[in-house]
Amino acid sequence: MRRDLSFLVVVLASVALGGCGVLFGKARPDVGQVVAPPPAAVAAAVAEPKDKELAAALADPAEVVKEDYDPWENFNQAMFTFNRKADKYVLKPVAQAYDVVMPAPWQVLISHALDNLRFPARLVNNLLQRKWDGAGRETARFLINSTAGIGGVFDPAGDYFGIEASKTDFGQTLGKWGVGPGPYLVLPLLPPLTLRDGLGLGVDTAANPLSYYVPAVWDGLGVQAGEAVNDRALNIDRYQGFEESVIDMYSAVRDAYLRRREQRIRE
Question: What is the number of structural domains in the chain?
Answer without folding.
Answer: 1
